[in-house]
Amino acid sequence: MNLLLKDVDESNWRDVIALSVSDNQVNFIEPNATSLLEAAYDVSLGWRPLAMYDGKKLVGFSMIGAKKEQAMWLDRLMIEANSQGKAYGSLFLPLLIHLMKEQYAVERIYLSVHDENEKIIPYYQRFGFVDSQRYDPENGERIMYLDV
After folding, report:
1. For 49-108, how does the pLDDT look when each residue is reduced to its tens digit (9 = 90+)?
2. What is the dihedral sign for C-alpha 47, 48, 49, 54?
3. With helix as H, strand as E and coil as C, how does the chain read?
């Protein structure tokens, strides 16, 4: 595997918005097109959309941003349906954490999850994320965090 995080730009944005998760996951993450619109127009939060590649194959998408002091959000992380079950999520999550720590000097990373997505909470806990027992007032999602 040759894993690469690449900024979403004019060369790949169409491919990124064409990605989708499996049918049973569509209610757990916003469409990538929505994320790219947020990145383009919600500029005060400094969103950075990232395409996730294995070699030349686009396998997923992530978006980071909303940095405040030494904290930042991992706001999106998705692996496209046909690439799921190949450990890409487990391989890319440490790369994203490393990028955020090194390029943004963060000490805490936040993310939010849907309670109905029962598999995702233990998944993030395997990487050290902690359930804050709080919910995001904007979207009702459970907030988790990782101290790095």
Report:
1. 999 999 999 999 999 999 999 999 999 999 999 999 899 999 999 999 999 999 999 999
2. negative
3. CCEEEEECCCCCHHHHHHCCCCHHHHHHCCCHHHHHHHHHHCHHHCCEEEEEEECCEEEEEEEEEEEECCEEEEEEEEECHHHCCCCHHHHHHHHHHHHHHHHHCCCEEEEEECCCCCCHHHHHHHCCCEEEEEECCCCCCEEEEEEC
* Identity of residue 146: L
Beta-strand relationship, 48-54 and 3-7: antiparallel
